[in-house]
């Protein structure tokens, strides 16, 4: 037998350390080649570390939440024979658009020969399995959250993925068998509870917390809210979807807002900027790279629609949809999650009446979209029903004056309320 030591991979781009976010195995587990061993976090990208070999886990190199140096020992696996003397290469990061191959060094320590560890089966049969109460089944963070939302005890679900990994389909199969523990007796709703739960802030949640704290401490936030009549642009959107939806794809309001940002920024270039507060330097950019805040299972992510100034409505819509799906599925690359010059944030139907968005540093402006509601309005002396929406936007007062912020949002308002002006050059 031999020992295959996997070191923390070099993700690239000058990163010297990464955070160990989650283990998917424990000491004593049998693993197969390509099985995910751990998740590590770098900037806003979550990376899967798979096994290049099959064997038995004999040591773990760190604890979840620990920041580890690139090249430090991540995990040791007992393997058959002398082990693999060549360098092994991990598959692409979860957040990568195209395959990215971080380098993983393999160190082999020879041991006396012994019987080979049996290779575990990759597929399990049936929807349900009994595990020990403290046994942690293999599952991704998204699957764990889905199980929690459904009220399912994950240890009771048989996984059909490699090495028994629980997949979304396994949760559906479990529910189909009528074995969900989601329901409880009606009297339990009034039962006295004294339980507590402690949740370690690690991985993506820690990155979000750090960025939000940094933004609120460093920037001088102020918000400006304006009401917008979106009746006309919603009529235009419905018309375009009816006429071109089947061939070009459906339009949401977001690509219209992206277009409005592009046009308004021509007169307010100070909003499309980054501020380096250490160097005391403002950089105004001609390119409009719009960050679109997107909620995913692992937290808030901001994929970037690059060169929005060169895109038409359907091009913007397709790119927003592609990036949002990539972010939600954990497949957005580092490049797709960085480089924005101004951010658009929306909670859709849950947008509420008003919000106070936090700046996406080093940007100086963020435009927040609230929900659309029908309300009676007075138009030319007549009370009519109009579709109304608020824009709740925040700015860095160190760079942006209040008057300029108000004029900028008023410019967006004029473009949205008179949608033909979005396309008049």
UniProtKB/TrEMBL annotation:
Cofactor requirements of the protein: (R)-lipoate
EC class (word): transferase
Sequence ranges assigned to domain Lipoyl-binding in this UniProt record: 3-78
UniProt KW keywords: Acyltransferase, Lipoyl, Transferase
Listed EC numbers: 2.3.1.-
GO cellular component terms, semicolon-separated: cytoplasm
Pfam family, one: E3_binding
Quaternary assembly: Forms a 24-polypeptide structural core with octahedral symmetry.
Protein name: Dihydrolipoamide acetyltransferase component of pyruvate dehydrogenase complex
MF terms (GO), sorted A to Z: acetyltransferase activity; lipoic acid binding
Matches recorded under InterPro entries: 2-oxoacid_DH_actylTfrase, 2-oxoacid_DH_E2_comp, Biotin_lipoyl, CAT-like_dom_sf, E3-bd_dom_sf, PSBD, Single_hybrid_motif
Family: Belongs to the 2-oxoacid dehydrogenase family.
Residue span(s) of domain Peripheral subunit-binding (PSBD): 138-175
Superkingdom in the source lineage: Bacteria
CDD domains in the record: lipoyl_domain
